[in-house]
Structure of HTH cro/C1-type domain-containing protein:
Amino acid sequence: MANKRALSLQKVAEKAGLGINSIYGWKKRDPSISRLSKVANVLDVSVDYLLGKTDNPSSDNTEEKKVDIEDEHVIMTYQGKPIPKEDMEIIKRLLRGK
């Protein structure tokens, strides 16, 4: 990924505020999540992408999840509290454009 951005590993480490040879040391020991996060920010990718857990380099960690608001088993919340049934009916109407 650094090559695609035309950055050397040393330059990535520098931009991430890490020691100049810090990333090279990761061959011998695992980096901390905070260090991985810094490198991910420099490269504009997700930590999961750096770890090989996804092929999607997007740094946007929110994957699109569709929720069927008609499903009675889905509990929608606002500020940690369940949305009352009456309010859910209003929300459903608004989403349907009616």
